[in-house]
Design a protein that fits this description.
Elements (H helix, E strand, L loop, with lengths): L1 E4 L14 E3 L3 H10 L2 E3 L20
Antiparallel strand pairs: 1-2, 1-3
Amino acid sequence: MKVKALVSFSGAFSMYKGEVKECSDKVILQDLLQAGYIEEVKEEKAKKEVKTSESKRSNK
């Protein structure tokens, strides 16, 4: 699960305030969520790539 730190903390899993990190340890995640140290980051849908329009140059 991807999480964001609401405060800085250290231990078996360490983060600084505002850091976004992946963690798969369910015990650590549950403990940090209950303490209010982290929040889950929802995955954003991939943004569509914007194509730039380029005009052709003529070398006449």
